[in-house]
Amino acid sequence: MSMIRDLRSVVRPSRTAPRQDDGAYDTTRDDPATPSAVVDCAVYRDGSRVPTDRPLTPQEAMRQVRRDGGFVWIGLHEPTEAEFAGIAGEFGLHPLAVEDAVTAHQRPKLERYDDTLFTVFKTIHYVDHDELTANSEIVETGEVMCFTGRDFFITVRHGGQGSLRALRHRLQDDPELLAKGPSAVLHAIADHVVDGYIAVADALQEDVDEVETEVFSPGRGGTPRGTDAGRIYQLKREVLAFKRAVSPLLRPMQLLSERPMRLIDPDIQKYFRDVADHVARVQEQVIGFDELLNSILQANLAQASVAQNEDMRKITAWAAIIAVPTMVCGVYGMNFKYMPELHLKYGYPLILAVTAAICLGIHRTLKRNGWL
Question: The pTM is what?
Fold first, then answer.
């Protein structure tokens, strides 16, 4: 909140008025080993990157745009409050959006502040693993915040995944598209993020199929063998993290495709409809994963209960068989002088034969009834 109070005095100056302090802000960090928050800063005019003999500062890039036209695209990675405050003042960014961009951990959304669109995307990266365990990390999440203005586009990225360098180069190879301005960059990032969702959903499908196969594949005796419930629960948690990234994004993409906006080129707007369709498709997949994992978890727990009941029945059956010789031995172990059959010549083998016959009869009966 302190940052908001500090920014209120700087976010309202005229966008076209020259700044009094000509060298006002700097995004280089005190530690030389720590890279600058600014990953790239470039001016684009007529769909092409304006060449420079050295890296531009955001202030210099905006000065060129105001003088010669075009737009500036600034990419930042995990900036601090102090690093972003100067850029926020230069471009007139709203303090609430600035606070969201710096602190991160935001849900996907689309907000409009005066002449700026603020968009939040959750990036998802699938983590390759040899075996799914109860502690496996399956998806990594990051964030990309986008400020779209009339003559500027600012991206603030959080997390180690989701680099936009390759996307920037791909756009620079398509001058006709990049000539559409900042809205073309916004669409390209949205499409890039959602394409990542599709790839992760396809990879998660294999994990879900693997768990489902293990739960319902036959084990000993032809009954399903089940699997570790911790693995299913971990996969479900990762799917829920994926769901939290995808579901809130559908409405912003629909708004960008349906509602006319001054900052979105009409030729670009129709392409957001395709992005919204892809988000809806992935959302349906993720919801299906969640529901299927619920069913798999319940089935696995039911199988564990059935297996326990089977074990208890077998223990009970063997206890019943063992009870017969135990009872006979107990009777003839009593210390009485006068007992029947004590002096029979064939008493011992007779008792053994009768005991074995009774045990065999009980065993066959229990096996016929499925207890053994």
Answer: 0.75
